[in-house]
Amino acid sequence: xxxEYIPFVGEETIQELILISKKLKDLKVLHVNSTYKGxxxxxxxxxxxxxxxxxxxxxxxxxxRGDERFFSFTKKLHNLLHIPCxxxxxxxxxxxxxxxxxxxxxxxxxxxxxxxxxHDPQPMGLIIKKHPGQKxxxxxxxxxxxxxxQAWNFLENFxxxxxxxxxxxxxxxxxxxxxxxxxxxxxxxxxxxxxxxxSEEEIKNIITKFGIDLEKPIILQVSRFDRLKDPFGVFExxxxxxxxxxxxxxxxxxxxxxxxxxxxxxxELLNKTSGEKDVFxxxxxxxxxxxxxxxxxxxxxxxxxxxxxGFGLVVSExxxxxxxxxGSNVGGIKRxxxxxxxxxxxxxIEGAAVRIKQLLANKYFRDxxxxxxxERVKHRFLIIRHLRDYLILIYKILNQKS
Amino acid sequence: xxxxxxxxxxxxxxxYTGIKVCSLKExxxxxxxxxxxxxxxxxxxxxxxYHNLPTxxxxxxxxxxxxxxxxxxxxxxxxxxxxxxxxLEELRNVLIKTIKENYYENMNEKKGNPFYFIxxxxxxxxxxxIAHTLNEFIEGIKKxxxxxxxxxxxxxxxxxxxxxxxxxAWLFNMGVAxxxxxxxxxxxxxxxxxxxxxxxxxxxxSKEC
Lengths: 402, 209
Description:
The complex is a heterodimer.
Chain A: H1 6-9, H2 11-22, E1 28-33, H3 40-54, E2 58-63, H4 68-82, H5 91-107, E3 115-119, E4 135-139, H6 149-159, E5 164-167, E6 181-183, H7 200-209, E7 218-222, H8 231-242, E8 248-253, H9 260-273, E9 279-283, H10 289-298, E10 301-304, H11 314-320, E11 325-328, H12 333-336, E12 343-346, H13 349-361, H14 363-380, H15 383-398
Parallel strand pairs in A: 1-2, 1-3, 3-4, 4-5, 5-6, 7-8, 7-10, 8-9, 10-11, 11-12
Chain B: E1 5-21, H1 24-33, H2 36-49, H3 60-67, H4 71-78, H5 88-101, E2 115-131, H6 134-142, H7 146-160, H8 166-173, H9 177-184, H10 193-205
Antiparallel strand pairs in B: 1-2
Family (chain A): Belongs to the glycosyltransferase group 1 family. Glycosyltransferase 4 subfamily.
Domain Glycosyl transferase family (chain A): 204-375
InterPro entries (chain A): Glyco_trans_1, Trehalose_Metab_GTase, TreT_GT1
């Protein structure tokens, strides 16, 4: 499978991966997160774990189990780590977190591994089973730069027992952390159905199936129906653009059945855009990977106007398809887009409208920025770079002087 | 007969030092104390962070200055060619001196976007390829990654405390001084390492020198 990446990253890069992996041969590595399906973490592990095994680093992936009560607490914890919101963690929740952790300790064998990666806060408590000689790494996928103090204290109980932690970018790391902090951005897999090459015919068939005119420029935002992704702001920007440009707006997303907020945002959006013939609000089923891929490839300009964002890998997905992205100057979006080179960073609806217009008007800009956008992803945000970072990290941690 | 050339490569992982600064004064103070491989990361490795992009500045400190409105300082720092230095402590002093020379007390307001000091935890690996002759050397470079080029053109100079890169040093020993000189004069920070690799191969295959 590794050789399938050669066309994207070159044979020399794969050779170097093999060389570094030889130093880690026969090592046993475990990844633990809280779901096999859905979400960016599972998607990355789906690609990463087989590649590590191919490099003869015995790597397993186990899932931490919990019930609704547990996950509703960890969801609250997640939100509190992101930003204080006036909620509190009570003793019952703390005790229940420990109870579920102890139940998982019986199911998840962590003893036979040299390196254990724990992803996000849900399985963090497993650290109590750490053995001497093992190295445990906490991989945090959340922006914890301004956490609720109580939530942080909760986390810190476990965090300081880890050997290192990883954040997507230094901005996400809270300043009170005392263990080593590595910065490893997430990645996309060029072999995933979301990112593979599609034929012109397939792109055309998918897009026209929804009544979209391929002859007219397409402005696209792909995101779940969530107010923080600001689809309403994108629509406002579109109205400013539409005064001079005959173009279409496509808002593609999905919402989980159990997310009432998603459904209400979707309905409100349908309602708001109902009189506009060139606006398409499409609620696609989960796993519509090829469809999303086709929309990104068929778009003229891609937008990601989030009000708040974790890393926002959907930006890299569009950039990988040679599209300039107009994105908000927040979270990981500002790490992916190099302003004026691979797209534009904007701070308002008006800013988004101006930049989208510039791109609609100038094919040269679109082509040039699209080219650089793809180059940026090729060097910074593909799974092979991610894998290489993990291998070096493992090597460094194992050889750390205490 | 000269020693064979051993092709190596350099990989690294970025580690956040925990030091972030929001003003020029804090930047100067941090530059005095940070790990020297943090200087290495921001001044040398930065070439990879924006690789292949026609960016405005050659290092991330200049970018931060630019984003915060210190345009003059951004230019002054970006003209510092890291390849003029093999001693990271000397480069540290040059950075501090340049900022101090262009710094006034009224420039000390705190900025909203902090600068985060990252350091590089590096690992050097041997590729297993060795060259005894010029032809083997050319073949070795053709098979080299840009990380390998970076090691031999940049890091080896710091490790060996010399302004002559590894490739050129070996070529001088082989008696091909003109090729060695040409390669040593390449401006790595104005192009990307793929283009540099092509140019090195052209120089080596050229019959003119």
